[in-house]
Amino acid sequence: MSLYGTMRTGVSGMNAQANRLGTVAENIANSSTVGYKKASVQFSSMILPATGGAYNSGGVETDIRYSISDQGTFSYTTSATDLAVNGNGFFIVSGGDGVEYLTRAGSFEVMDDGTLRNAAGYTLMGYEYSSTSDPTIVVNGFEGLTPVNLSSASISATASTEGQLNVNLPSGEAAGYSKATSLVAYDSQGNSRLLEFTYTKTAANTWTVEASYAGPPVTTVVPSTTLNFDADGKLTSPLSLTTLGFAVDGANMGAIAIDISGSTQLAAAFSVETGAKINGNAASEVVGYEIDDKGVVSVVYDNGDLTPRYRVALATVQSPDNLTPIAGNLYSQSNDSGVIVMGYAGSAGFGTILSGALEDSNVDVAEELTAMIESQRNYTANSKVFQTGSELMDVLVNLKR
């Protein structure tokens, strides 16, 4: 056995234990870092061939692995923009260089420019929300992503465009009987406008309805229209009313399509059926944000309305543990990780999003302290091997003297 080989093997062992101590130090330092995934060292032996009956000691080499697929526990917060992925998937974030990265660190907050950035300064990416269909995504690329930006979420007003008003008209009343009800609608500036609907019986199974804006100025919005009922008291025609648009105080009151198909004429008192409504809303201020488990980012107004703005996208790879770690709790695709696949929370292969929660580091400090003690002892033992080899080398050199 070569003395030189003994010293080389001792150095190899010390280097291996130094690498392990390095991962232990990093893991302990990041035990409170949101979304941090622990690093570990795997050892493998280096065997050198023996020649002529002489043993050549090899050594040990290390391979650094990351437990990226190992999900941490969750800590719950009071901020709706703190996000965590429960299951598979990574948030897509972008830095100042415009390059997209993957991360599990979801400690996002709204910045003064309206973007959502995490503690490392990276901006959350997503797609603009569509009420009719999910945005079309590029499955294997980041094209189409845009920063989630809530700066446009300010005071909002929505004009009324449609509604529903179903009533029961008492069949036992004589011709000339009249009854009124009203609905609130909203003009283009968010002002509330009261529309009054008046029903008058003209004959058996026949009524008229007309509607007007109380003003000022008083404006007819539905001219007198005949309602016809069959022998069972069901409305046969018309099944809807459309109000006339008009201008008032510099704002526009647009035409409103009102569904009346559920109206009846039965032997009961006049009543307005449940569900009478007209859409639209008055001017409302933003009071917060809400993100659901499918990643839909909505603005919350003081009148209780929710307006969806963005859909947060998620990404996965075939082998998450082989992603390349980058400073800032970021990951990028590597040759061994597989290609990045895009999708949405709640769909097949992807987890769900928790709002008001953060994923904890998956580091077990007690386990790391145990590993630190083991590495310390092993490092000391390897240093003794090196020291012994060095002393024997001195003996060998001194034999000539």
UniProtKB/TrEMBL annotation:
Keyword Transferase assigned: no
PROSITE patterns: FLAGELLA_BB_ROD (PS00588)
Source superkingdom: Bacteria
Keywords: Bacterial flagellum, Cell projection, Cilium, Flagellum
Domain Flagellar hook protein FlgE/F/G-like D1: 84-158
GO cellular component: bacterial-type flagellum basal body; bacterial-type flagellum hook; cytosol
Major localisation: other
Cross-referenced Pfam families: Flg_bb_rod (PF00460), Flg_bbr_C (PF06429), FlgE_D2 (PF07559), LlgE_F_G_D1 (PF22692)
Gene Ontology biological-process entries: bacterial-type flagellum-dependent swarming motility
Ranges where the Flagellar basal-body/hook protein C-terminal domain occurs: 355-399
Protein family per UniProt: Belongs to the flagella basal body rod proteins family.
Protein name: Flagellar hook protein FlgE
Organism: Ciceribacter lividus
